[in-house]
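Lab notebook, bench 4. We co-purified these components, and the gel suggests they stay together. Before we commit to crystallization screens, I want a quick structural picture of the whole thing.
Request: model the full complex, all chains together.
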Amino acid sequence: MDKLRQHIERIVALTDEEFAFIARHFSSRKYKKHQYIIQEGDEVKYHYFILKGLTKLVYTDDTAKEHIVSFAMEDWWESDFLAFYTQTKATMALICLEDTEVLCLNLEDYKKLCDGLQKMERFILEKANFGFLGAQRRIISLLTSNAKERYEQLIKLYPNLVQRVPKAQLAAYLGVSRETLSRLNQ
Amino acid sequence: MDKLRQHIERIVALTDEEFAFIARHFSSRKYKKHQYIIQEGDEVKYHYFILKGLTKLVYTDDTAKEHIVSFAMEDWWESDFLAFYTQTKATMALICLEDTEVLCLNLEDYKKLCDGLQKMERFILEKANFGFLGAQRRIISLLTSNAKERYEQLIKLYPNLVQRVPKAQLAAYLGVSRETLSRLNQ
DNA sequence: TGATAATCATGAGGTAGGTCAACGCCGTAT
DNA sequence: ATACGGCGTTGACCTACCTCATGATTATCA
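Here is the predicted assembly.
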């Protein structure tokens, strides 16, 4: 839980009472490598804060090809956010690439936290804004750059992520085949 | 201004006093077709609410090729949000595709509105979340679909937008050449 | 009204990246 | 020790899309 507090306090300062109030809304869970946190078609009950580990958010197209919408690791928030936020069925799967520990926040508590503590709403807004900006950067990368450039941008932006993730998975994130990714360093 | 009130009240109800407080933070401006609202390298003073008209947010790559990061029309918010939010120089241009009227909100007032009226922060958070989800949908489209599929998805999602925007501009949004887009209907 | 610029379509040829298939190198479980 | 699955590489071939060039049609505006 201390990790969560530090994470929030990077954006808004908290009193002990405030953090106690926040902490009350989270539950914790552990998953093993290869386990599914969310499966396509599930109800998505939680937004997850990752304490430890590494996950991929996967969209599977109609030819059964897997596309990685995002990776998430320590201190990141992750979910099938559309399904979570609009209370619809998951269209993506959330899968562990390593053993993973998360804190879970359900939608009701997400709203209660926003209502009950303006600092928390501020924090969540800040996260939402930067989440949007990250997605926009990715769109620009996809629009403007070829496979090699996108790979280099990824290495620059998340050098430690690239260490931890198999190349085939990076390829599925970058939107290229693993063969193409493998040929880039020549 | 009435348009703004209706727009906000689709998400949170407001009293007259509350809306008066909100309205006080906005100024209004008009631009002609082809005019730049933001130029690359500018300071970005405002986040814009579009009352009327149509704009494109353009990223120009190092080969001088233009990529359209987003379109915005009536009731949409637009800016080079990274530059606005982090008070850095614009890396994108915001250009009118039609005569356009906007309401302008500077960063200081954006923060004051969040601080001064929790309803407004709620509203902005809701917008931020859906902005993120829209960007994520676009990423999935770029990762999973070919030119024709992406074009069809765009038509389905924003049929009226497609009417108003020249095909060459749609191509720059979809990430294909205008020639390719022109050949799709065969 | 005539000139100029957008807009759209189409042909020809080139290329980045996809697909399919084979192979080598681990790590780990039997 | 051996077998097997995950992971990465490489070759051969194919295709979706790009680029360059031309021309037709339609707005726009002096």
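The interface with chain A takes residues 59, 61, 65, 67, 69, 81-82, 85, 114, 118, 121-122, 124-125, 128-129, 131-133, 135-140, 142-144, 175 of chain B (CB under 8 Å). Worth comparing against the SEC data before the next meeting. Residues 2-115 of chain B form a domain with the Jelly Rolls fold (CATH 2.60.120.10).
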